[in-house]
């Protein structure tokens, strides 16, 4: 039986995500969908608007069969590390035949052409790219300019969010020399950053805005009908929407304990940024204000927001590099599955090259040291994100120990 993998944030799960699952099954012939999900935090450097168990249940109600967790250190990384962590875990599961992902206009042929070129990295291209970086351009802008110079027909692949991730997925698969087949699916409806809710498939960004504004009837119109009772109950109970701004006090306290030397160890910190951060955080009134003070031509808002979360979570460049050298996450954590798809979980225990985690308590007693370190970091991420919940009853610590494996 063929199985497709999807890398997702589901922040929140909406009609476009349901369309992807449906079309993936129809066009690839896959009978099952395995999702690897960013849990507590998302790639642009924000807390997920709802907890990972609500997101997992939404994914299963929306058509997924098995949900794995993408560790926060990868979920909160720039596109190359984000894609590497997710794809590597799917490959390590031994379950996946196809990787399904959304694109703005990319084709499999162009994705493979540019991915192969970037993996080869001809000297002339490398030299041109370094020149752009030396001029002060941020890496994404320097890369885009370099590709326009050397492969102009592929330049659009680094100009839009879904295309960028699609390219990184392709690079990860080619580098691994995996037999995993690509299934790029043309994105439907509103653009990635669109705030319009008039489209048949409104963006997650527009739905988050509606949610945060309290216009829930507009939010419910953009999600599958099967998910409305779930979201309605969670909203009324005060489980969401979560806001990253709630973490500003914790960030101030964390930064008061930092030195330039300790900050240099954190992910996303480039040379000199540690001094800028320590100088400016005392002037900021809130999370958004600090990002505005820090942002400039060299540092993008998502990069800076991820950096602030790395400070809170203690995530370091050296630990991420260690995980990459070891081949990715050292375990596969299952968040939930559909009862009729229980065979997938049984098969995962047979095919996975990594330990399969279904109980955090048991895993911490048996996993090797590096895996325990990552799992403990994940528990911290869960508890930190919980502090952003609107209602105090959902801010309790140790939620990775108190939430059972979800069986729907």
Between the first and last Cα atoms, what is the distance in angstroms? Answer: 21 Å
Contiguous low-pLDDT stretches (5 residues minimum) are none
Proportion of strand residues: 5-15%
Q: Quick one: overall form?
A: globular
What's the average pLDDT? 95
What share of residues is helical? Answer: 40-55%
Rg measurement, Å:
21 Å
What structural class should be given to the helix and strand makeup? Answer: alpha/beta
Number of helices: 21
Number of strands: 10
- Specify the biggest β-sheet: 8 strands, mixed
Q: Any descriptors?
A:
single chain; 408 residues; alpha/beta; eight-stranded mixed β-sheet; two-stranded antiparallel ribbon
Structural write-up:
It is built from 21 helices and ten strands. By secondary structure, the protein is an alpha/beta fold. Strands 1, 2, 5, 6, 7, 8, 9 and 10 form an eight-stranded mixed sheet that branches. A two-stranded antiparallel ribbon has the order 3-4. The longest helix is centred in the last third of the chain and has 18 residues. It is globular and about 55 Å long.
């Amino acid at each position: 039986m063929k199985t497709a993998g999807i890398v997702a944030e589901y922040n929140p799960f909406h009609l476009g995500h349901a369309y992807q699952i449906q079309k993936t099954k129809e066009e690839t012939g896959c009978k099952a969908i395995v999702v690897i999900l960013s849990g507590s935090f998302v790639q642009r450097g924000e807390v997920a608007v709802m907890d990972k168990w609500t997101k997992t249940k939404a994914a299963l109600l929306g058509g997924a069969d098995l949900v794995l967790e993408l560790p926060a250190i990868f979920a909160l990384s720039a596109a190359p590390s984000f894609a590497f962590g997710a794809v590597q875990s799917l490959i390590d599961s031994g379950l996946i035949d196809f990787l399904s992902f959304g694109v703005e206009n990319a084709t499999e042929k162009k994705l493979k052409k540019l991915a192969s070129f970037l993996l080869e990295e001809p000297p002339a291209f490398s030299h041109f790219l370094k020149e752009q970086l030396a001029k002060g351009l941020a890496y994404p802008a320097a890369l885009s300019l370099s590709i326009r110079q050397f492969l102009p027909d592929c330049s659009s692949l680094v100009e839009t969010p879904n295309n960028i991730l699609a390219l990184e997925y392709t690079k990860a698969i080619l580098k691994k020399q995996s037999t995993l087949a690509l299934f790029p699916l043309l994105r439907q409806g509103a653009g990635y950053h669109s705030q319009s809710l008039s489209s048949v498939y409104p963006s997650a960004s527009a739905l988050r805005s509606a949610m945060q504004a309290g216009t829930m009837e507009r939010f419910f119109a953009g999600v599958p009908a099967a998910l409305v009772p779930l979201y309605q109950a969670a909203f009324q109970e005060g489980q969401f929407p979560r806001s990253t701004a709630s973490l500003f006090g914790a960030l101030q306290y964390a930064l008061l304990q930092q030195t330039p030397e300790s900050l240099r160890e954190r992910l996303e910190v480039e040379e000199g940024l540690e001094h800028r951060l320590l100088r400016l955080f005392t002037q900021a009134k809130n999370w958004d204000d600090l990002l505005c003070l820090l942002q400039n031509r060299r540092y993008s808002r998502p990069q800076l927001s991820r950096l602030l979360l790395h400070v809170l979570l203690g995530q370091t460049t050296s630990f991420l590099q260690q995980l990459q050298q070891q081949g990715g996450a050292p375990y596969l954590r299952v968040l939930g599955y559909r009862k009729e798809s229980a065979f997938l979980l049984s098969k995962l225990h047979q095919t996975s090259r990594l330990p399969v985690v279904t109980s955090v308590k048991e895993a911490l007693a048996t996993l090797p040291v590096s895996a325990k370190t990552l799992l403990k970091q994940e528990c911290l991420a869960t508890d930190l994100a919980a502090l952003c919940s609107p209602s105090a009853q959902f801010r309790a610590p140790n939620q990775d120990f108190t939430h059972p494996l979800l069986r729907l």
